[in-house]
Amino acid sequence: xxxxxxxxxxxxxxxxxxxxxxxxxxRNIKNNADFSVGxxxxxxxxxxxxxxxTLVGGASTIGTAQLAFVYGFSAWWFNxxxxxxxxxxxxxxxxxxxxxxxxxxxxxxxxxxxxAAGPVSSLFSSLGIFLSVVxxxxxxxxxxxxxxxxxxxxxxxFSIILMAAYVVFGGVWGTGLVGIAKLLxxxxxxLVGGTIAFSGGGGISGYMAxxxxxxxFSLFGRGFWVDFAAGFSLVIGVLSTQTYIQxxxxxxxxxxxxxxxxISAAVIPPIGVAGTFIGLYMRIHFPDxxxxxAFPYFVLKIMNPWFxxxxxxxxxxxxxxxxxxxxxxxxxxxTNDIYGRYIKKDADDIxxxxxxxxxxxxxxSLTLIFIMGNIxxxxxxxxxxxxxxxxxxIFIPLCAALFFxxxxxxxxxxxxxxxxxxxxxxxxxxxxxxIDPLFLGIAVNFIIILMGFGRETLNxxxxxxxxxxxxxxxx
Length: 475
What we know:
The protein is mostly helical. Helices cover 80% and strands 0% of the residues.
């Protein structure tokens, strides 16, 4: 379906406003600390905007409607799991994270488990986040091709250019302030779209009259273990990902940091409800369309054209903003844990800022090259693999580093970081299709950590005894 002049006007106006906000936000960047963690000046809304600006992307909007079109309320798990993850982040993780003097997850792990933990965690964390960037670009490609009939590779290149502009000039300030503007636009778009879909389908009674209760009105319509794994992967993904942790650290106080995470926990799940009803509406009224086009077609066919243009631009911003925020997370890890530690140990703040911006461009360029051979791949496959790699390798060791300092042997911790992700990857070929390989990765990770629990304390006690014996002999 072609865009009308009203659609184009709405799109142009929305993109212009967001561009102005992004350029303005770049004026706050004076050094690498400002760029990476906002100089610890961010209020709760900026913290929330940064988290939401990354979590609410193509998967939580276009992807939710797509999955709801096929399975119904199973689609809510992406947003629901993300919301639960933010709730735990605010209630349990905010304080120990905020009180650390480290910027990145690998730095936190290296401080607890030794220098070797840094490169290992950086590798799997960056790879996992990179796969999410790929997924966001693929989401943008689907949207752009539907809107403008662009060739897929041209759409990929255009989306990457937008991601670079989105974050290079603003860092967390850019993603945070733009995240606030995007939050308002998404809520307006989803509120209007969800209301139209809900009322247009005759409310709950109307939908239940048209669609069977299972699978469409069950949270486990794809099977308990499949949907539970989907939600669980989002929870541990949020708690293991640099971008969301970085947002908490950027808060100007612990209270503001915690409030930002809790605002995100409250804001994200309702977006999924609206997207689910949009998918169900399209299932009833346009059952023969490609499920991936459920949301864009709803906007083009059902909504007022001018407002529909605003919604389309908002969806594009949500997708591009998600990829931009994740790219910033990778770049921060590589700058602090590779460049600053191994390449140029005496790098000043300006040098680190330049390298961070260079890495943003490098990661996005690599994404474009990678997508050339995977342009038709499934978006959700990339998302699940991404969350699995991050969770299976990082989550439990990070919990040990934050809550059980000095209690886990560093060799066991490092081994768990390696074997967890490798076990998950192996499980994709070894386990039945109805069992998510994430469970195997987490189980292996947990068992190895458990084997090393308490050994660090015993080793330290033994060292003290040996030192005491040596001292008495010398005396």
